[in-house]
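Lecture notes, continued. The same structure-token format from the folding unit now serves as the input rather than the output. Read the line below as a description of shape only.
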């Protein structure tokens, strides 16, 4: 289908919202937000305010439903009574503050992981990250049918790109004095979270378990899923996406309650397992180990308590995936 919507001015955009039922208290201020933030970025925050259709089954272009006929509801153009432009802006600002705290946590976790992975693998071989014999066979030897190369081969290509692009003095100094490749404890400093996560997933089980146990998780494969989930969230933040009620595509696996007592509150709650609140708790748990004197968890608790008053729209902090009305933030940190 060809896109046919015409360009519209900020005034026309705002008039469209008003016509659909979104209340605007201060027109000049609303126009300013549209000019600075943009209609489509803000639309993700007023989307939950839109009315929903009754339950229906989606059909494809041929008028047929999917094999698994799942009932759903669709968003209408009109807004729920009482929804305001300010409600959307308040939610946007809350989400912005949330992403700043998440980015702070992920930076600390990433730095700690660099040390743990490089120290553990470096003990085996200073170039262990390039030595397929020291990595899991499924990662280093199995060929992907789509590409005909191993996951390790793809990882090494990404690793090489990061080194080539790096402007860091320590990389320049190492290359001039020793040439390539970089020892793992040097190379790790140019890796991003995704590179770290992928390499950890490709490590042998004994090295995975050795590292994950430091973080209170006995099974390294479960910890690998945590890192993939955190990398997903990191990418959302890096690209300024909406986080507060996002459906998490990379769902983390849960360790047994013998590792972390709080997981029992999430085990049978599929909604909570796919929302951001669980990942916030995971970050808080990891920061207790990485930076035990940090006040991050207290700051996150204060932010969650400041969630905008949207009860008239049936939205609250539980939309983020809090598992129950009885669950408290500090339960993430109880033994």
């Amino acid at each position: 289908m060809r896109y046919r919507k015409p360009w519209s001015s900020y005034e026309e955009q705002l008039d469209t919202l008003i016509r659909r039922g979104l209340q605007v208290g201060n027109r000049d201020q609303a126009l300013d937000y549209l000019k600075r933030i943009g209609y489509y970025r803000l639309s993700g925050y007023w989307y939950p305010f839109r009315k929903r259709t009754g339950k229906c089954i989606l059909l494809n272009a041929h008028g047929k439903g999917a094999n698994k006929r799942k009932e759903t509801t669709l968003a209408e153009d009109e807004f729920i009574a009482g929804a305001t432009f300010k409600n959307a802006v308040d939610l946007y600002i809350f989400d912005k503050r949330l992403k700043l705290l998440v980015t702070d946590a992920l930076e600390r976790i990433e730095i700690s992981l660099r040390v743990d992975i490089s120290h553990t693998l470096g003990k085996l071989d200073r170039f262990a990250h390039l030595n397929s014999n020291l990595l899991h066979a499924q990662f280093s030897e199995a060929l992907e049918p789509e590409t005909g190369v191993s996951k390790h081969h793809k990882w090494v290509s990404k690793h090489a790109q990061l080194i080539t692009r790096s402007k860091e003095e320590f990389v320049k100094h190492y290359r001039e004095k020793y040439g390539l490749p970089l020892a793992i404890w040097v190379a790790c400093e140019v890796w991003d979270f995704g590179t770290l996560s992928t390499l950890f997933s490709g490590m042998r089980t004994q090295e995975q378990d050795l590292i994950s146990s430091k973080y209170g998780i006995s099974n390294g494969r479960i910890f690998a899923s945590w890192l993939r989930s955190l990398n997903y969230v990191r990418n959302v933040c890096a690209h300024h996406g909406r986080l507060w009620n996002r459906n998490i595509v990379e769902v983390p696996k849960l360790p047994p309650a013998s590792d972390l007592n709080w997981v029992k509150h999430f085990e049978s709650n599929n909604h909570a397992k796919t929302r951001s609140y669980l990942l916030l708790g995971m970050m808080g748990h990891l920061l207790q180990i990485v930076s035990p004197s940090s006040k991050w968890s207290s700051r996150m608790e204060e932010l969650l308590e400041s969630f905008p008053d949207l009860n008239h729209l049936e939205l609250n902090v539980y939309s983020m995936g809090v598992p129950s009305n009885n669950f408290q933030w500090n339960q993430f940190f109880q033994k």
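Point for the exam: The radius of gyration is 24 Å.
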